[in-house]
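Standup notes, structure subgroup. Blocker cleared on the zinc ion input:
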Amino acid sequence: MNSFFIKATAAMTIAVSTTAMATEKKDFNYVVDRFADIEVLRYQVPGFEELPLQQKKLIYYLTEAALSGRDILWDQNNKYNLQLRSLLENIYKNYSGDKSNADFKAFEKYLKQVEFGNGVHHHYSMDKFTPEFSRSFFDSQVAALPTEKKPADIEILSKIVFDPGFMAKKVNQAEGEDLILTSANNLYEGVTQAEVEAYYASRKDTTDTTPVMHGLNTRVVKDSNGKIVEQTYKIGGVYSPAIEKIVANLTKAAEFAENQTQKDVINSLIKFYTTGDLKDFDEYSILWTGDTNSRVDFINGFIESYDDPLGMTGAWESIVNFKNLDASHRTEVISSNADWFEAHSPVDPRFRKDEVKGVTAKVINAAILAGDSYPATPIGINLPNSNWIRATHGSKSVTIENITQAYDEASHGNGFNEEFVNDPAMREMMDKYLFITDNLHTDLHECLGHASGKLLPGVDPDALKAHGSTLEETRADLFALYYLADPKLVELGLIDNPDAYKPQYYKYLLNGLMTQLMRIEPGKDVEEAHMRNRKLISEWVLEKGKANNIVSLDKIDGKTYVNIKDYEGLRNLFGELLAEIQRIKSEGDYDAGCKLVETYAVKVDPELHKEVLDRYSTLTIAPYRGFVNPVYTPVTDSNGNITDITVTYTEDYLPQMFRYSSDYSTLTAK
Ligand code: ZN
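Run returned:
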């Protein structure tokens, strides 16, 4: 299963930008909240106010469709999440005691964490949150609730909160364990990993050249006869009340479509939500991929499968966006040269595409983030995920510039560079070139990296199994890293300095070898696909590069620093590894892929880990960041006609969560 999201990391945007967008409001307050390992930011939507009214209305109904699906993801993440959310919010609102009380403070932190995780597990580490308030505080607050707000099953909810071993991990990826039985998400019930694998194996027709993405919109359970069946997410099926609301808003949005193509896209999505038939999803995906001329665009559905240990079921999400016309020039240049990049890539010509089909790329501004993209959000997207649709119809790739800009702005002067980069000249290069090369990295990763290469005939696209996501991200990152240093980028006018890639290389290794470890608890392995990918690449080039005097980790006054001595040599190593990863993907060489992941991507050096955590603790940087959304409000005339949609940026974090729980609860009592 392919996955095409880059999850933004705090360390991805460590530089101070010198190229901030002209539309930036100087006094805009980016930081909204800070708790546990999280910083919540807000983002601006430059250009929204200038859109024609029809496009504003289109965006408005698409944002309503996006918010209407919120409860789906909560329930997918764990079957008790919605009940737990109601309980925690009710306790918080009902609390009348001293708000400086330590138990209350700890409870508030826990509530904020659960809201951020869309449930009781951390969005990134997948571990269950640990409550720091006392059991007696919790029990007394439950007892103080009015009768109608008391949960039906307080026993199980208390167990979820207080028993660390119960449903400990949302998604377990540990090799050798039953990944389904040990994962606490709600995508399977009463079935073992072996049973599910056998079930899908029997469903797959290996001669089908246009296979649907089995399991994408289903929950797999055993029926009363012990037979394995799929329960479908659709109107009349699982999550029907939420999907009905989504469809009602999509229907309104279709009235304001910019053109017939876009109207067809929306209507085909409505059809899919109605039938639940994955053939209809493929039809929608093809239409969506072909809609490249509309200004407004959106995704809404069951898309990425990181939250399924087997990579089958899609987590529900939505992003509504519109094209940033100025910045899109950059990605248009890249995608119009896609064939040149493919033809010059350092992989075996047998694994290259003869012609890169329809990679369309643009830079967008997000208007709303929802489901699996909220509050933590990707900074780039490349969809659809279906391999045969990508091969036949191409794909659409975007970089979300108002999000990367907010990350960049919020990182001003946070002390990161001073702590982890010991060369002042490099710090200066980072300040100057990281914002643009971060964006270029994302562009290259999304529009070229994921779109490059091909499978040899007969190779199963899922051959790399549990390591598929990691290796796919590794491939896309290596493609981007390799070409960031290519003189072609200067020739194309995308960058004005042939050395601009150097701070990007430096930061990439720093992150992959060291600073991303701030997100891992002591003693734990690296598990998330993008983190594994960055570690795999960085550890591999460090091992190869040490011997040739290309790169090393040096200890100076007890602190470890990345030392790149030969940038050309480093680029060649990226090319060498890209060739091998592409071979693994093209041939479906599971054993070689598994060995690379297990050797370089998983295990953490405890000593270096401790050093990174200690150095981080002297800074106030949050390891993870996410966003609150702007608020869109229709303005109506005396006849109730919408005359404008306004956008405001004043809502705070918990108030937004509470408003969403109140206005967009579809699957649970409020
Ligand atoms: Zn990716």
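Discussed briefly. DSSP finds 24 helices and 16 strands in the chain.
Next: hand off to the docking folks.
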